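## tool: complex_structure
## caller: assistant
## args:
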Amino acid sequence: MLYRTAGQFKTSYTADQALFPIRQDAYLLGIILIFAWVVFPLTASEFTFQTLLIPILIYSLAAMGLNILTGYAGQLSLGTAAFMGVGAYACYKMVTIMPWMNPVVAILLSGVFSAGVGVAFGIPSLRIKGFYLAIATLAAQFFLVWLFEKWAWLYNYNASGAIQVPNLKMFGVYIAGPQADSMIQYFVVLGIVTLLTLLCINLTRGNLGRTWKATRDMDIAAELIGINLMKSKLTAFMVSSYVVGVAGALFVFMWRGAAEPNLFDIPLSFRILFIAIIGGLGSIMGNYLGAILIVGLPVMLNTLPQTLGIPISSAMVEHLNIMIIGSLIIFFLIIEPHGLARLWALIREKLIIWPFPY
Amino acid sequence: MLNDIFVAPFVDMFAAPDFLMQVLWEGLVSGILYALIALGFVLIYRSSRIFNFAQGIMVVFAALTLVGLHAMGVPAWICILLTLGVMFVLAVVIERVVLRPLVGQPDIILFMATIGITLFLIGLGEIIFGGENKVMITEELGIPTGSVLLEPFGGLLILEQKDITAVIVAALLVVGLLIFLNKTRMGRAIRALGDDHQAALSVGISLQTIWVLVWFIAGIIALVTGIAWGARAGVSFALEVIAYKALPVLMLGGLESITGAIIGGLMIGMLEKLFEIYWGQPLLGGNTETWFAFVLALIVLLFRPQGLFGERIIERV
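## result:
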């Protein structure tokens, strides 16, 4: 009813291929954007910013990076967390070497470093495929985390071996470090995430995105129709690692405030992979849905027993959490292996033809 | 610098051959354990094309069940039988609840499902048995705990008896498994299913039965691995990290090959110890064992994309 498409005629291919071929989609996105930019900042508490809004945005950005590589270009990667680490450490080195640098510029530039590392570790993908490649990306995961630990230059020879985010100012306002206000940080994160999302949507719709999809669907056939596989795979690694690197810099600078090497260990990689897969591989919107689920669920599970008044120890909650997340992953894979984005697509299709069955 | 990399380590090796042999022995024992875990992976991968990430946590779960049952006062050998029963129930439940609805889905979905199983088992294990480190019931199981002293080249070589037991048991397990796969009806059915699902189904092989069977065998392997590793380092969830060590073994040996898993496991076990002792600690600040195996496997894979013993990858358009 709300999604009735009658009367929206397309008279050219350009109109048919537009970002929002159906007008209601654009309205819906507009409403979501108003909520994200105006309603949430006005109503959210400090707790909501720190446990829900900021992490959901950062995790969805990281998952989007992974999704470009795995969902669009078909190269399974298990080393996402390490590339986030590269972004975070690059950003840390830049702001400590050049304190005058605009922090947002530093965050955006830190992705360049992780893109470089990503391309280097993407080179094996030209020969190695499938699960072999997935394990090969684990080489990046373990090697880089080890490097973060042993290469003292990276953390400025700190005794603790961790990086601490300094107070950073932009236009006279603290935007990172202990003195920064959560709402300002939220706006910085939201701005960068919006920008990169727009970039990713258009990349995946364009020529580059089509070569990625062709590579994913069958790389030999893609090669036969004249796609340069090396270019296609390496650009996928590059764009993906760039986005993931920026997400890593945001992760540390806008949310955690400090980072140890083992923060970028393999559980983080898996968590991002969950988000991408539960959200839906090969979909941009899915990353947000997945992140809302994976980040929001533990918060909900933690507060639920208290509000219901069930006496339960926090260690027990922790373990139950892991169990419930594990079973939910299986549950969602069984009901819809193509993720929440597909689920939404099905609902939307039903809404368009409602109340008729066909 | 070049001297440190290319000359000095070898001089050290020849100067103290007994120490070299000790290092190799340690590597061999951990290599056997990597190989055992990799074996569990290979079995499941061959019969169902599922990349079973849960093998590591199955090792922990089996060991925890064994120790936990014994702590309740059950005699050791009954514990083993009961643990096998638990692993069988686990195999049936996994097949019924997780795998059956997901038959025919892309590989990555099944892989994610096994990670889901992993998380579930971690939570369950922590709730039932608690997270603290436990001691494996080595003596109650009749595993000797002394050590054998050898004196090659006038030096000293210490071999722990439980390690020797682990090596022998692992060898027996592998031989048994090879006989089972090659000589029995069930074993042939497993291999047939691995070659072609539809063809196997059409000659009357039951997918469900075989999957339960394969996961149960993987459970048995997990129990053996758990006992052997637990005897060395205690039983705790830290054991799970050795599951990651089995992944480069799989790459090196090839995902389908049992021989590959064993040879790859031994190679990686020994080479990573050698590298750590002679190159890693003096030159790189140590702890290189976390990544050495992966980088080694990656380099080998660049020359042989299917691993050393894997099936040749043939692609058709």
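## assistant note: Strands of chain A lie at 163-164, 168-170, 173-176, 258-259. The two ends of chain A are 14 Å apart (CA to CA). Handing back to user.
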